[in-house]
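S1.2 Input.
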Amino acid sequence: MLENATQVMVDNLVDAVAVHHPQGYRFVTITCTDLGDVCDLYYHFDKDYALYNLYLRFDKKRELPSISGIYPAAALIENELKDLFGLKVTGLALDYEGRFLLSDGAPHAPQGKPIPQRTVVAYPPPQEKGA
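S1.3 Output.
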């Protein structure tokens, strides 16, 4: 995690972003690292030439609330997250519905990693000695 990042949970992401807007923070971008079943998301903001970051470890099976109601420019990056990583972003101010960067016939989530399938292996119980 970045040193100057504050960790947030998906349930309080929008509130955490909303606090910084009236203080003059400018939205810069969102960085996504796909780890398989989760993504690390960094929301980058700037004020007076200093970066401030919010960090969110996000379960890809959940819905990600959009911050575009606070920072309209975020809609562009959030549409990229939908297209490239297959994230489910809800409440977008402008939703391209998976066709912002990708055309018909393009692979689904080309930058995303598949969610790992966990296999349970059943081993026979150990045999007692002398049996």
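S1.4 Remarks. The domain at 5-90 is CATH 3.30.460.80 (Beta Polymerase; domain 2).
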